[in-house]
Amino acid sequence: MGLDKCEQCYEHQALNRNVFNYVKWKHRAEKSRQYLIMATIFMVASLSGVLLFVLLISGVIRVPQTDNSTSKVSIIKEEFGITREGVKIDRYTLRSIANASIEIQVLTLGCTITSIKVPDDKGQVDDIILGFDDLIGYERTDNPYLGAVLGRVANRINKGTFKLNNQIYHLPINDGDNHLNGGHSGWNKAVWNATVVEDQLTFSYISDDGDENFPGEIHANVTFRLTKEDELIIRFTAEIREKMSPINMAIQPFFNLAGEGSDSIYNHEVTIFADYYLPTKLDLLPTEIYTDQPAIHFYTANSLDIKHGKSGHDYGKHSGFSMVPQNYPDAINHDTFPDSVLYPGSTYIHTSWYKFTTAD
Ligand SMILES: *[C@@H]1O[C@H](CO)[C@@H](O)[C@H](O)[C@H]1NC(C)=O
Ligand SMILES: *[C@@H]1O[C@H](CO)[C@@H](O)[C@H](O)[C@H]1NC(C)=O
Ligand SMILES: *[C@@H]1O[C@H](CO)[C@@H](O)[C@H](O)[C@H]1NC(C)=O
């Protein structure tokens, strides 16, 4: 669909009957870039590991082919700033050496993707990620999770309430009457430990039992890998101790394929290969629907209103888009939605592939 008549675009959850979600974005003005996202989301690996295996064997899924050889990517660390609480934040830059056309920067604050630089069809390199120039920007109270990891549970939980193991939990209410993206201090506000192993950058975080009223201690990792085919692979994993908890990890970069700060996304085209979409009510909670597979949250930045982003750019309505693979919103309160519970002894795994190309 074209996005010129974007007034009708809203927040929707694209659902896929298959395990694979596949989305293609294209900027179709003179400067042309394409962006593809392919995502698999597995709520509980002990179950889905078997499912993935079966699907791979049966040829239903084709995992993108990537070259596993190492040292084709350079990963550089530098200090980005000091938080209001006095914690040092580092920025990591991943750059493809073999094909030095793509560069990605990520912070230890909330695993935030601050920039992705890619060339267009004329070789002009632009930063296609909305964000801020400095840490003060990312710490702003009006920062709408730009580029950040979302957890423990991305998206909304109705009235911030759920029942698990015969216990009722009340979470912080931070979005109207509901709980959104992990609460007042979600994982986007956490400072993650970074480890570089060959071409992989892994961020780790321990979310304590009782963190934002969620049960159980969760050990979470987010791994970034850039391949020489210009794919960014982001892998989320998590394990829990003793108790069980809902989980739904995601990351929310806002893109503008014409370059951040360009007027709008009206010259973009999007194709979403989904079997269904999940209608939501005004408060963006879903109406009841039955299906048993994962989703992609599609948002055309209808209520974005950021003054003084990068280089002083203002980011208004429709100045970017986000495409966030995840489980269904409020899955913990809907028996017919895919299970969002992380159990002790199992591993949560979610992998997304982002591929950047130029249009024909
Ligand atoms: C460099 O990137 C271009 C565009 O994605 C691709 O066609 C080409 O194969 C890449 N070159 C190498 C050496 O990987
Ligand atoms: C992060 O590093 C600190 C200090 O070295 C350590 O205490 C903590 O356990 C680490 N957290 C994770 C998740 O590795
Ligand atoms: C996170 O990564 C560390 C190594 O960096 C590994 O020891 C640990 O098992 C990983 N945890 C999960 C939940 O993947």
From TrEMBL:
Keywords: Carbohydrate metabolism, Isomerase, Membrane, Transmembrane, Transmembrane helix
A GO BP entry: glucose metabolic process
InterPro entries (UniProt xref): Aldose_1/G6P_1-epimerase (IPR008183), Gal_mutarotase_sf_dom (IPR011013), Galactose_mutarotase-like (IPR047215), GH-type_carb-bd (IPR014718)
GO molecular function: aldose 1-epimerase activity; carbohydrate binding
CDD domains hit by this protein: galactose_mutarotase_like
Pathway: Carbohydrate metabolism; galactose metabolism
Positions of transmembrane segments: 35-61
Catalytic activity: alpha-D-galactose = beta-D-galactose
Superkingdom of origin: Eukaryota
Record family assignment: Belongs to the aldose epimerase family.
Functional description taken from the UniProt entry: Mutarotase that catalyzes the interconversion of beta-D-galactose and alpha-D-galactose during galactose metabolism. Beta-D-galactose is metabolized in the liver into glucose 1-phosphate, the primary metabolic fuel, by the action of four enzymes that constitute the Leloir pathway: GALM, GALK1 (galactokinase), GALT (galactose-1-phosphate uridylyltransferase) and GALE (UDP-galactose-4'-epimerase). Involved in the maintenance of the equilibrium between the beta- and alpha-anomers of galactose, therefore ensuring a sufficient supply of the alpha-anomer for GALK1.
Protein name in the entry: Galactose mutarotase
